[in-house]
Amino acid sequence: MKIKVVGAILIGMLIMSACSFSNSKETEQNSVENSSEETSEVFISPDQAPEDEFNPQMPVHSGIWQAVDYGRTNYYYEFSEGYIGRRLGANAGDVEEFSYEVNDGDNLVIHYADRDEYAHYSFGDDGKHLVLTYQDYQQNLQWMSHGTMEDMGGLGLTFTVKDITPFGCTLQYTQSDGYVTGEITADKYFSLIVHSEEDDDEWGSTDYFGTEGQTFTIEKDSSGEMQIDWTSKLGMLVLGDYVLTFRIRDIRNIGGDWDSFDYRVWFSVLANDGESLIEKVVTEAGADISDARYSVVYDFDNDSVMEAFVYIGNAPDEYATSAGEVWYVDGDRCAMVKECDNFFVHGDKVIDMYPTGDSVVVELEEAYTTSTVSYLFMLENGEWKESAISGMGYFFKPDYVSDYCVSVSAYDYCVDYEDGKEDDALYTGHTWKNYYFYYDEKVSDFKEYVGKDISEGELKAACGFDLAAEIREAGYQVDDIFKRENGIINVNYSKTEKGDAGTVYKEFHNVTYNELNQRYADAWGTNGNSWQDSDFGGTYLKAITER
After folding, report:
1. Other Cβ atoms closer than 10 A to 336
2. 3-state DSSP call for residue 22?
3. Does the pLDDT at position 155 exceed 50?
4. Which of 158, 322, 301 minimizes the C-alpha distance to 225?
5. 466: buried, middle or exposed (CB in 10 Å: 19+, 13-18, 0-12)?
6. Mean pLDDT in the chain?
7. How confident is the model over 199-242, as pLDDT tens digits?
């Protein structure tokens, strides 16, 4: 199938605790998990209308109510005038509409499109707490805000997205009126909720992407937009429905007094008309249409004509590998790009794509026992070519630099030899080290940030402290110091031990330091920021393209 991304009607949704915090750290929570601590009373704007006063009676007070079981949010309800409303699962992307009626004074019948639910109800004295008792379970609801599903916090915010591609989108916002009590800030840290028809029609969350801890301010009576790129963590999106989620705060005092909500914006990746290209590949390959298990149809060169990459072969095995062929096809050409016995499959994706300045790079991965190798293809003058760095290692886009990386597999963590017999040395210990690249539009290919030797004094000036001295104090020898044009500094260091029988054992380590943000790389995802945490193991070279 041809993949084309089309924006659906997009809804900005404010969810989560609308709590007023006073001189305390904001409770950690997201759309899946919420704090079990009871929230404090919501701050009401001084210009609140009299009709917004609470009464413990039906119809339910308009606004957003949070349903909590065992300390975790499971649903959000929007109640409106006229005994109608909507319900949203805490980790779901779909919204169910309902109407409700009262029977016998304290019993509710909630009418959904496909069912009715029956519950006994009772209010708290303040009217902001509602208990629904069903036949076999109970829900405790607490009023959260004057908003709707489109503006749950009542902050007068509207979010939509446009210019959706497989790699990102433009997020647009407007602010007007609403119950704003302070300064509105939005996180630049996002996740997606993904709908899967194959997995029991469920919704599930992806990894976070963007920049944790960074925010942007939304001024009152303003509008604006920002670019969002999810490729560094999620790669290319495939056919399906998605919800973009991110945190909004109404901050009265940065020291600890704010309301917090999670917004959601819906969009879809829809099928397109690429079936004819897939059928062309199937015919050329002499295969059955059922063997065309994965395809990417896209206007790779922006000429308003669709092209496609099609995988024909086996389904993935228990090791997420598959044997088959990947073909390229357009209106004039149809040719096999690569045949492999062990393509690595990400989820259901055999083919991945990365946007570049003037084209799109297509990646295929070949799996080995402990590593994968990427093969890269791009369009040049109307013809597809293989990249000069294809096959060097695992290609990816990291989140700690704005460049591309190739992770190179090597056995260089340690060496054993007899003193005087260095030529017979045995190197062991598997390492994976990142080398950095940028896309050069002049040559339509990637070029490496080649390392240059710098002195310990230059290293100290770049870091602002004597890193080499710290390494020596820990008992190591400083070997090489390389600085790359993207601000990455690699320091190779080692430790040698000699045995009584003339044997020599040597370990090799390294530091990766980013001069641009004054941080070490988090080599193994430990969330550390020390030179020890940035050790990928082994010895860095100045370049892998100049060996």
Report:
1. 14
2. coil
3. yes
4. 158
5. middle
6. 85
7. 666 778 888 998 888 999 999 999 999 989 887 788 777 777 89
Q: What is the dihedral of CA 493, 499, 504, 509, to 10 degrees?
A: -20
The predicted pLDDT at position 29 comes to 33
Whether residue 156 is predicted with pLDDT greater than 50 in this model: the reply is yes
CB-based contacts of 159-165 (< 8 A; 24+ apart in sequence)? 159/10, 159/11, 159/12, 159/263, 159/265, 160/7, 160/10, 160/12, 160/265, 161/7, 161/10, 161/228, 161/244, 161/265, 161/267, 162/7, 164/5, 164/6, 164/7, 164/267, 164/269, 165/5, 165/355
- Classify burial at 197, counting beta carbons within 10 Å of its beta carbon; exposed 0-12, middle 13-18, buried 19 or more: exposed
CA 436 → CA 27, 189, 440, distances in Å? 38, 24, 13
Q: What are the C-alpha distances in Å from 321 to residues 79, 147, 358?
A: 49, 48, 31
- For 14-34, how does the pLDDT look when each residue is reduced to its tens digit (9 = 90+)? 333 333 322 222 333 333 333
Is the pLDDT confidence value at 113 over 80?
A: yes
Q: Which two tokens stand for residue 358?
A: 């003037």
Among candidates 243, 271, 282, 247, which has minimal Cα distance to 88?
Answer: 243
311: CB partners within 8 A, 6+ apart: 292, 293, 294, 295, 322, 324, 325, 326, 343, 350, 351
Query: What pTM does this model have?
Result: 0.61
- Buried b / exposed e across 29-51, counting CB within 10 Å, b at 16+? bbbeebbeeebeebbeeeeeeee
